[in-house]
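request received
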Amino acid sequence: MVDVTKFVKKAKSNKINLKNFYKKLSKKLRKWNSEYRHLVLINEIDSVEFSLPNGNLYGVPLSVKDCICVKGMESRAGSAILHGYKPTFNATAVQNALNNGAVIIGKTSQDEFGFGTFNVNVGKGFEIPLNPHDKKRSCGGSSGGAAGLTALLAMNKIPHLAIAESTGGSIACPASFCGVAGFTPTYGLVSRYGLIDYANSLDKIGAIARTTIEAALLLENIAGFDEKDSTSVSVNLKLTKTDTNIENLTLGIVKDFFSEGIDREVADIVWRKIKELEAKGVELKEVSLPLNAKYGLATYYIVAMSEASTNLAKYCGIRYGAALKLEGNFDEYFSKVRSKFFGEEAKRRIILGTFARQHGFRDAYYIRALKLRSKLIKEFKKVFKSCDVVVHPTMPIIAPRFDEIEKLTPLQNYAMDLCTVPANLAGLPHLSVNAGFSRRMPVGIMFTADHFNEEKLVKIGINAEEPIGEKE
Amino acid sequence: MSSIDREILLRVAKNARLKLTKKEIEEFLPQLEEILKAFAKISEIDVSNEQLAVHPIEIEQKTREDKIGEGLSVEDSLKNAKHKKGNYFLGPKAIG
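response:
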């Protein structure tokens, strides 16, 4: 049985023997992981005595992205520099899920600190996860393990939810490439306490699941005000009880993300889905985000890299993570540890971020990018005066093959985030669901709403999605 | 808009406590030049009337009661450190 809600009901009424279920699941996970590498760590679930809180996620298998702290479980954000780090506390999102009865099955693969679009920028010693639809292709990034595992388990009729994280599209992109639902909430809705940060003002913990309603269920149960996070906001989310009527909604089609650089077949599948939604009652309207389309990528990368370069300054081989023999002075020791354990993309982003914040360049890059960000947010706000939700393809392409990714320069890699970056830069809630298939690979359609309008996304997502593993 | 050259790259790397190999320098320099050229696009647009968007939403400043709460214990703080002595982290020599 793949449906999470039905699984919870059966588990609560003892129609499922959780001990046997997890014993079998443990064996399967180990077998599949040697083939697909979605998990960087598999939890010991085969001999657990279950006495779980009787909550909304009772007995549900839950994976957690490697950058989110789980007490006693190695949490490395996909980086060798955090080798051996076992947090002494749970991230708030993780604790909320545990309080609702979820069972953590492991930590999922990601690009090192979230620095990537294809989950190929894994840290030294980590393996690249493979797309369950085609092992020659990427799962997407940076939450590639979370999306890949969700798709693989759905194909095998096993219920599963994934706590993931997005900075510039790291939930939507892998959800699109793997054919699952990726739900990124408004900035601040889910506490970042216990998240190993990439870029504070952009990071958002969210959910990946087989369907919109399952992602909404997870989100509802991990969100909430947390005094341990100064950017946390208090909003009472009621997503799973929403009606699915979309007749009073206006959908803004972002014309800028249907033109240059978007694969024709991907655009056609998304268009077809939009016409289906029109037949179900939504009003369509063409809208434009020209500033976001033109300046979104550059603005996002300057802000993200600047914040990343300061966040990663704390990794120096002293308090946690990888260390070397204590030799030389502070500068020599720190440089040795950081140069040895950071991967190539991490170094590239630290350098670019340090450059953008450095005296002489700061006003032209970092400060200007923060001001431009204001302008880009305003552009979104103006569009939301005329429509409820905006829509466009999640990614410009289907999941690429690894041999295709190898040929891309770093700048060409960054350009792939064209459609996902604007919503992330503006901290807007967005949802990617499967719209269909092109060349046997999933195609994601992305919906974005105004801040704290997650409910509208749930309504649209339920009506739009074509979930994998649907036939029981 | 200012870009990067070998000298700036080495200075920035030093500030970031990264010691780049010769291979990394040769590889990174043209890549960073290309990326910064693309980033320079942001100079085209007037932002003089804009505020800094440090966060994407308005964050209300909150205060809490000035009471001592739970924090990390010394034992937990040191749990993940490879180099430690008694209740202290051990680091490389600072003087001498």
